Amino acid sequence: TAPPAVRRALKTRGNTPKYGLIFHSTFIGRAAAKNKGRISRYLANKCTIASRIDCFSEVPTSVFGDKLREQVEERLAFYETGEPPRKNLEVMKEAVAEASEVVAEVKRKQEKKEKKRKKREKRRLEALAAAAEEMENSVQEPEENDVGPKKKKKKKQQQEPEAESEQEVEENGLEEEALPKKKRKLMAEPDQEEEKKKKKKKAAAARDSEED
């Protein structure tokens, strides 16, 4: 909807207002009464150009805004003193040259930041990989230490029955394979009983000889 001043001017068929909220700008306040309408239109034009530049520029810069502000200042001086301002084409050429330099500098800084970020990320990943390797090595070492003695014990246990079986074979003068543990125990029990009986007989014979 149109502002109240515009509706009122349309109803009364009077002159439409020359400015609205833009009237609060310092540029318009500094202008003379007869130049307020001219400077308000000029200022609105420059604000439109600045908004379009901000919308379509890839890297935002303040170069164009500063140049447009200088143009408004020169136009105010022209209204007061009659000094001719610079042409818009010249000002925009200067602004484009300065803006290209500023954009190049900003891009260089962004590239440096990106390189630093990539380096930090690479170092972080390398540190994580090294930590993971250390953890794996620390887990594998105790496992190896636990497995080593068990293997040795098994070897010892395997060697002991083999040695016993060899001794039994040598004592008996037989060339048979080693018997299992249960059979060895069963065979060892009667031998022990016979040894006990022999000892008892020897003790009895010794007693008889002493009595005689």
Query: How would the global form be characterised?
Result: rod-shaped
Q: What is the tally of beta strands?
A: 0
- In CATH, the architecture of the domain at 4-136 is Orthogonal Bundle
> Which regions are unreliable across 5 or more consecutive residues at pLDDT < 50?
173-179
Largest sheet properties:
none
What is the succession of H and E elements? HHHHHH
CATH class of the domain at 4-136: Mainly Alpha
Biased composition (Acidic residues): 133-146, 161-177
Region (Disordered): 107-212
Domain Nop: 1-81
GO molecular function: snoRNA binding
Overview of this protein structure:
This is Nucleolar protein 5A. With about 210 residues, the chain is mainly alpha-helical. The chain has a domain at about 5-135: Orthogonal Bundle (Serum Albumin, Chain A, Domain 1). Helix content is about 80%, strand content about 0%. It has helices at about 5-10, 25-30, 35-55, 65-80, 90-170, 180-210. The protein starts with a helix and ends with a helix.
Q: What is the fold's blueprint, element by element?
A:
Layout: H1 4-12, H2 26-30, H3 36-56, H4 63-81, H5 88-172, H6 181-211
Helix pairs in contact: 3-4, 4-5
Brief digest:
The chain has 212 residues and is an all-alpha fold. It is rod-shaped and about 165 Å long.
Features:
212 residues; mainly alpha; 80% helix; rod-shaped
